[in-house]
Amino acid sequence: MTAQPRIKQCSKSGKTTKLAIEGAEILTPEGWEKDATVLIADGCFVDITTNPDTNGYKKIIAEGMQILPGIVDLHGDAFERMICPRRGVNIPLPIAMVENDRNLLAAGITTFFCAITDSYEPGLRSRETARSLIDFIWGDGEHLLSCNHLIHIRHELTNIKGHQELCSWLKKRRIDFLSINDHLPPIEDRKKWRRHISSLRQRVTLSNQEIVDMLVELQEYRLEGSLQVEQLIELAHSNNIPVASHDDDSEEKVALSHQRKMAIAEFPANVDLAAEERKFGASVLMGAPNLLQGGSHLGWMSVAEALQNEVLDCLCSDYHYPSLFHAPFKLHLEGLMSLEKAWELVSSRPAAAIGLGEQKGKIAPGYDADFLLIHPENPIPSSIASVYVRGKEVAKYS
Questions:
Q1: Tens of pLDDT along 183-239?
Q2: 244: domain range?
Q3: Is 4 part of any domain?
Q4: Tally of structural domains, the chain
Q5: Helix, strand, or coil here: 143?
Q6: CA distance 39 to 26
Q7: Which residues share a beta bridge with 156?
């Protein structure tokens, strides 16, 4: 059984709103429903019908518009640039995360798994920053953030410090999704070594020698880190928290992911490995920016290639939120998928992969009323008119 993260069920207004949105073209699980009315009450869809009883409902006329399910983003880390827009420059967390929340809504994302890196790095990707983000999202963020935020911890295998704190977070369900990352390159792989150091320079204020010394020391932590990871995965499974692999690039890593009962495979390197991941029951997740830029920036499998070989299950924003909204339209325009099937890659299929398939990602009775109201005749960047989360309009653009 797929694990299920918890979803916050808060109403910022404290009032029950009953809405009837009339005359729109609605993307339902069965396809497009034209000139229908969507009924919403208590934050959920009640009915989609052409003969509605709207007595007691507030009416919204939406003729000529389309209603799409809200986007479910399982892996997004662009918030890091809100917190740290330049190396050594840190914006206060409430300011950064409220700004980020507005960017999420503008991209049509209504459920967001905040991909927080729990790394050996100081600063932006440190345990201290992870702790602050978790405290904010489950604290003041309940009232300040409109997009539904959940916690995706990207744990680095060689970050062995504070292991018991991470275990405690899992036991207390302060984490909703755990992925296991290992970005530390082996010393003998000079290409990966140089690329990793170049990446670190963009985030940390350490000198080149301090970075090298840190990476050399971390090589000694692999065994202990691996043992800790096994305990973390066991705790996640026992607490019904989904677990993902990350960047599997060999048959050995795929076999280990299978052994660990990973629910999701993030960014596998090629078609064959992705096919093996799916055979073992994992959902393959790839980044929407890969599609928009025509391929992986690492030279790995492209989204188009994954689709053509039927090894893609879901898309995520990765490092660029708007890409996730644009991707289904691009797939449709290029004749790779119908829009309704392409939209599943960013809504119902990621929801199902993470264990929210009966609550999020569809416009159907009983589902949370998270949806986008769009102008289909407008250019894609400006087509979103309104964004709703649990039946409440949280962003309006026209």
A1: 999 888 888 899 999 999 999 999 999 999 999 999 999 999 999 999 999 999 999
A2: 71-354
A3: no
A4: 2
A5: helix
A6: 12
A7: 181
Q: Are 31 and 340 in contact (CB under 8 A)?
A: yes
Rounded to 10 degrees, the C-alpha dihedral 165/171/176/177 comes to 70
* Residue 340: partners with Cβ closer than 8 Å, 6 or more residues away: 27, 31, 32
The answer to whether 127 touches 158, Cβ cutoff 8 Å, is no
pTM tops 0.85: yes
Question: Cα torsion at 70, 72, 76, 82 (round to 10°)?
Answer: 30
Phi, psi torsion values for 385, nearest 5 degrees: -95, -45
- What residue has token string 């928290």? 241
Query: Does 122 lie in the same domain as 55?
Result: no
Query: What tokens appear for 32 in the block?
Result: 């497009």
Terminal alpha carbon distance of the chain: 42
Q: Please write the tens of the pLDDT for every residue from 264-279.
A: 999 999 999 999 999 9
User: Domain with 60 in it: what CATH number?
Assistant: 2.30.40.10
Q: DSSP 3-state assignment of 327? A: helix
Contacts of 21 (CB under 8 A, 6+ apart): 37, 38, 40, 60, 62, 67, 373
Q: Can you tell me the distance from the alpha carbon of 351 to that of 315, in angstroms, rounded to the nearest whole number?
A: 11
Cα atoms found within 13 Å of the Cα of residue 180, Cβ hemisphere only: 29
